[in-house]
Every structure is written in structure tokens, then in C-alpha cells.
Amino acid sequence: MLLHIPTPLIESRALSLRTGCDVWLKMDALQPSGSFKLRGVGLACQTHAQRGARRFVSSSGGNAGIAVAYAGRQLGLPVVVVVPQTTSARARELIQQQGAELTVHGASWQEANELAQSMLGPTDAFIHPFDDPLLWQGHSTLVDEVAQAAVTTGWVPDMVVLSVGGGGLLCGVLQGLQRNGWGHVPVLAAETEGADSLSQALAAGERITLPAITSVATSLGARQVCQQAFDLARQQPVCPVVVTDAAALTACRTFLDDHRVLVEPACGAALAALDVLPSAFADAELPPRVLVVVCGGVAVTAANLLSVTA
Ligand SMILES: *Cc1c(COP(=O)(O)O)cnc(C)c1O
After folding, report:
1. Which of 37, 29, 61 is nearest to 168 (CA)?
2. Which of 2.60.40.1930, 2.30.30.110, 3.40.50.1100, 2.60.120.260 would CATH assign to domain 9-36+135-307?
3. By CB neighbour count within 10 A (0-12 exposed, 13-18 middle, 19+ buried), where does 186 fall?
4. Does residue 265 line the site of ligand 1, with CB under 6 A?
5. Would the CB of 163 count as within 6 Å of ligand 1?
6. How far is ligand 1, taken at its centre, from the CA of residue 163, in Å?
7. CA dihedral 270, 273, 279, 283 (to 10 degrees)
8. Coil, helix or strand at residue 118
9. What is the pLDDT of residues 155-197, one digit of tens each?
10. What is the DSSP letter of 8?
11. Is 35 in the pocket of ligand 1 (CB under 6 A)?
């Protein structure tokens, strides 16, 4: 049994016309937990349950915590989620709706994570939000689904666009691309200003730590990317793109109108990064085929998105 679902892969006529590319969307906003996180978290929780874990502990800015809470409920195991103060009221409510115990601690994920670590007992499994090979393996199924669809549709990506926080999604997607013979396909790695830990690390040639997270895209708020993301991004073609919070928010608003699906600014970063596409492919003869990972996210309400983008 898998805890995540295979998600739709749909053409975006609106984004294709706007970018001059052939844009397709992997709709992971439709996962039962509201984001792609369930792919990796589901696999990690199942694996730990099989190994005898009796409780799951998570530290998460939101979507990973909700995914762990969902997985625990499905597996019949209790869950504790420690979130930083930046986590929205909406996300806190959703974690509790899944029946998990919620603790709020610290100004950023780093502090929440330290408390979560200190709570671990011998039969607890800690579920990391991004730095765990089980998580990357689970996330990589997203690419397998695109490859399976390609058998019948013939549609293969010339480029992948996704958002980067701690880099777990990036690791999974790069691993999936490699496994499906697409290791040469470039990946546009989107971050917002103030959460751009991958972009700054690649520029510096070392895994820098941001002094603070200053972006509204709290789900991208890891002050340092994981080692594996940094290493893979230097082995496979990864191109960092940094967008403003305003651009990410506007992209969420436009996406809501175009596709009638509400996503977080963390996901809006990838949608906003599509604006650099025309220049990236300026000399292509055929419209390049672009796969956008619509990673989703639940820490936003329609009212709140509409009020900040009005
Ligand atoms: C977690 C998350 C990200 C970033 O994923 P990482 O694996 O931390 O890089 C992006 N978007 C959403 C909606 C998320 O929940």
C-alpha cells in the first residue's frame, strides 16, 4: 500500500502561451496532504513502522508535518509535530485536524528541530522534512510517473522546474531523472529572495547558512540546504533562479485563475521562475517541453492570498 497517490500530469495552455514553451504540470498539490511531501514522508513512515517504530516525531514548517500527521493516522500510530512560530495558523490547524499533537517552538525550523530531536525516545522515529534518503526515494516516484506516462504520450521533458527549500524535492527529482535515463535534463531550481540557500551556496562553492529567513515562502525556509542537494546540484545540470516574494505571490494568484488550484508561495516560486524560460531557450527550434512540479502547500487560504495580491 502506498500512502501517496499518482497525480495528474496535465498540459497548461495558459503557461504554454505565456512562455512560448510546451508546459506540463505535475499536480502534486492534489496529494491528500496537500503537497508532494507525502511521497517521501509516506515511504519513510511506512518503512519505520515496519521496523517497529511506535510513534513519529517531526519538525516542520508545515507541509512535512501535515504529511507525517496524515501518514501516522493512516498507519494507526501517534504523531508529534514541532513547528516554529512562523508556521501559519492554518497549517497548525491542519496538523491538529489529522490528530497529531502540536508543539510550537522557536523562530525558525532550526530551533523547532532541536526541540524535536530532544524529545526522541527509543521507539520513536524522527521524520526529517528534507534530509533523508528514504524521503528522496519517495519523492523520486514523481519522475517515475512522468516516465510511465511518456510510454503512451511520447511527452518527455526538456527541462524540469521546481522549488527548493532544504533540497529534498530536488534530490528526489534528480535521482528520478537519473534512474529514468533523463540525467542530462536541466533542472531550474527556484527559491525566493530571503530563502535562497541553494543559490547562494552554489555561487559561494560551499554550503552557506543564511543568517535568517526573510521570505514569505516559509516552506522554503531552510537556512542551509542538505549536503546531498548541494552535491547533486554540482553533478547534474541545475540552474538556480531567485524570484521575489511579490513575483511568487502573483504567480499563485495567476495559477488560481488559470487552473483553479490554490498553492503556497513556496510553489509560486517555481511558477514565477517560468518567466526566465523564454530567454533560457531563446535559440530552440521547437517549443521546449517543460515539466513544472506543482508542489502545492496548504499554509495559505484564498482570502489571505487575494488580500496580499489585490
Ligand atoms: C517542503 C516544500 C518545498 C521545498 O521542498 P524541500 O524538499 O525542502 O526542498 C517546496 N514547496 C512546498 C509546498 C513544500 O511543502
Report:
1. 37
2. 3.40.50.1100
3. middle
4. no
5. yes
6. 7
7. 0
8. helix
9. 999 999 999 999 999 999 999 999 999 999 999 999 999 999 9
10. P
11. yes
